[in-house]
């Protein structure tokens, strides 16, 4: 029997391909029908929505949306008749029939604490190379309120806020100037007590200093800055997300301690004031 490969690349963000996993349920699959399960690889809740396109065959059965608990796996998520496979293909590509919406965090409970003052996630004076609503890559609802700090390779990165480490990646050495390299960034995602998450991107190969599941303190060393993923220069991409079923992960405006009410400007240098 051929192995059935399920290709799922999210239009929202390529990085989600590592955080949500689809696989064939070998114990349920029969000679006539393929069953697929879905698994949340994060230690954070995650919602997943499959929106059918007009050309979807009625024979495909699926669960339109779900909220996955941390590390939860759900079976019977998609059911496909084998006779739908064209030319006895070993590939099933559901992008042809669905668009996807996915986000980490529980949209029912995540609500950002707007008066929280974040620490700058580094100590030395560093230049802001792209700020909020930057035209180069901060042009999406997930990145409108992101900051790109021009750290040097080897700089220590610190937790801007206390929380639980829900996802990490440190296996990549690749980087490039186009979005096709986005999935190669090393990163840390930390969930806060209000359900929001902070993402620290472009870390060094094997540059994660903590482990998934750790509870980290504000100001704790968590990683080493590098140059991986979609980038033209070494830097730290830092952003805080909340989530909603309608829009997925949404970047939120934040304030840094020592800079309350001040707008960070591209080209200016900033350092922690504590």
From TrEMBL:
GO terms for molecular function: metalloendopeptidase activity. It comes from the Bacteria. Residues 146-244 form the M23ase beta-sheet core domain. Residues 1-17 form the signal peptide. CDD domains: M23_peptidase. Keywords: Signal. This is Peptidase M23B.
């Amino acid at each position: 029997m051929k192995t059935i490969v399920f290709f799922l690349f999210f239009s929202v963000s390529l990085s989600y391909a590592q955080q949500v996993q689809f696989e064939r349920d070998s114990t349920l699959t029969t000679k006539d029908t393929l069953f697929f399960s879905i698994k949340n690889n994060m230690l954070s809740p995650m919602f997943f929505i499959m929106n059918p396109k007009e050309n979807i065959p009625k024979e495909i059965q699926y669960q339109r949306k779900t909220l996955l608990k941390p590390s939860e796996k759900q079976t019977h998520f998609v059911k496909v008749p084998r006779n739908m496979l064209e030319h006895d293909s070993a590939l099933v590509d559901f992008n042809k029939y669905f668009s996807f919406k996915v986000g980490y965090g529980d949209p029912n409970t995540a609500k950002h604490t707007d008066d929280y003052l974040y620490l700058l996630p580094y100590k030395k004076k560093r230049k802001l190379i792209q700020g909020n609503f930057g035209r180069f890559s901060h042009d999406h609802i997930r990145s409108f309120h992101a900051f790109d700090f021009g750290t040097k390779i080897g700089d220590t990165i610190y937790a801007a806020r206390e929380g639980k480490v829900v996802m990490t990646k440190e296996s990549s050495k690749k980087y490039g100037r186009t979005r096709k390299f986005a999935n190669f960034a090393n990163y840390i995602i930390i969930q806060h007590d209000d359900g929001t998450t902070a993402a620290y991107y472009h870390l060094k190969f094997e540059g994660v200093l903590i482990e998934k599941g750790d509870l980290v303190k504000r100001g704790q060393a968590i990683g080493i800055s590098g140059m991986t993923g979609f980038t033209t220069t070494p830097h730290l991409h830092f952003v805080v997300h909340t989530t909603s079923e309608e829009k997925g992960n949404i970047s939120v405006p934040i304030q840094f301690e020592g800079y309350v009410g001040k707008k960070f400007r591209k080209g200016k240098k900033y350092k922690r004031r504590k």
